[in-house]
Amino acid sequence: MSLPVVLISEEEIQQRVAALAERISDEYGDDDELVLVGVLKGSFIFLADLARKLTIPRTIEFIAVSSYGSGSKSTGAVRLVMDVRGNIEDKHVLIVEDIVDTGHTLKYLIGMLESHRPASVKTCALVRKAERAEVDVSVDYLGFDIGDEWVVGYGLDYAEQNRTLPYIGVVKPTD
Ligand code: 5GP
Hints:
Layout: E1 5-8, H1 10-27, E2 34-40, H2 44-53, E3 58-66, E4 79-82, E5 92-100, H3 104-114, E6 120-128, E7 141-145, E8 151-152, E9 168-170
Parallel strand pairs: 2-3, 2-5, 5-6, 6-7
Antiparallel strand pairs: 1-9, 3-4, 8-9
The structure holds guanosine-5'-monophosphate.
Guanosine-5'-monophosphate binds next to strand 5, helix 3 and strand 8.
């Protein structure tokens, strides 16, 4: 299989992640108990880079959901596969997502995490496909808006392949 075509380069990603980390560090205080909640599996590289660039205290949790049924088309049904392990009550939660497509997953996650009674819930996503939005969900910290195409790399996969590419790319339909 040939390599995906670069859509967002490694350098562009690193610059954007640094800028997001700076904004987040400015907007939360040193006294805020910030919990980054990474959504498995796709956010693992983004979360690792973002977390290491923050200059404020932070802890890490993971959550796992299954967004799509057995087919490849979103049904809008989201199922919780793994909840956060730590206590997030009265803490400031920042959901760290790889990609927002229809928005169903992020909307579900906000509601789910709010049920743990945190001090606040905000959202951060590396990539958003704005034109695919089906529900109104705000992304407080966004990396990039892209068009309607399947992207891989920097944590994102196609059939579990290409997650460790340092850039975000598009798999050619002929592959
Ligand atoms: P949503 O609920 O917003 O429709 O879907 C979000 C989830 O769909 C993401 O967390 C991701 O798992 C998957 N997804 C949507 N578009 C893409 C894409 O272009 N590439 C990859 N790898 N996953 C995607």
